[in-house]
Amino acid sequence: MRCKLAVVPAEGEQYVIEEVELADLRPDEARVKIKTCSICHSDIHSQMGEHGHFEGSATGGHEAAGVVTEIGSEVTYVQPGDRVICCLVKAGCGKCYECLMGRPYMCLTNGPMQFKLPSPYRRSGGDVPTQLPGAFTGFAEYANVSENNLVKLDEGVPYEVGSIIGCAVISGFMGLLHRARLQPFESLAVIGCGGVGMSAIQGGRFMGAFPIIAVDVDDSKLQRAKGFGADQTVNAKSGDVVAAVKRICPGGVDHAVVCVAGPGIKRQALDMLHPTGRLTCIGHGTYESEMLHDFSAMDFFGGRTLTGSGMGATNTRLDIPRLMALYRAGLLKVEEMIDGRYPLERINEAIDSALHAGALKNVIVFD
Ligand SMILES: [Zn+2]
Ligand SMILES: [Zn+2]
After folding, report:
1. Ligand 2 center to residue 230 CA distance, Å?
2. CATH code of the domain in which 301 resides
3. How far apart are the two ends of the chain, measured CA to CA in Å?
4. Residue 83: its pLDDT value, please?
């Protein structure tokens, strides 16, 4: 079928909107008419080649939600007309060792997350762009999505909320639950207050963290962090951030969760920790740019732990419905993260505002 697609003609270039041909469905795929796709900082890193270089043209967008219009011959989870979240984390088969151990995101049958795969779109002239998010493309009118990447969107949950839950919220909130494994009354510093950081703050609040200290370089984000549940804020530009955190929690915090890229920030976060504390790394640049050179074994002799969290170690069809239930109960703030809504034609403006104007979440909205 023909549809509209946002294409990056070459690495680092701006998006252009084109009419392209979308391939027929594979047996395991559903066709999703995209309703909303929010912009994630990792979309911008990918477009610039900062999550690995790519040749030729590319497509992006992975925080998508929409409605199923057609299904492949083997699809059983959804029907045409179902509202869905498209999530990069796959649902498991339910039968393999990893699924039985409660790690469906590592399912041996459905395979790990993969990035930079050939897209199902063909441009006029025959060029097939690289699909930067791997599993599907959200900056398009229609996408072919494996049913493993779908989670049904509950009644009463708007598409744009589903978009944001499917990446930013699971990364922050579920990262705290599954990887930081925070306990009530433990103290928490969240470093980096974008969509993921605000979700980590909300996860901390829900799990009983106290106090929650938001750390960022942007005062307006710190102000907003209080609305998501932060008790205290520290501007990392105004002096010694480690000392500032330790003034609030003498001896250091139980948890530091880093929601931005950069190895220096991970080192600072480690220094904020109590000798028994736990550092959870979520935000990242490239493999090379995240090399940690200046940690000593001695940093861990008090019992500190260092862990990481890729998209919250999320069990999508268990955890996303839980988050949607919290949203419907008024216990998860998602719309409060949205700063702008843009049609696909204005995608470059939406990206620019996320990059330079401090927007937490901008959403591409289709008619
Ligand atoms: Zn994302
Ligand atoms: Zn499995």
Report:
1. 37
2. 3.40.50.720
3. 18
4. 98
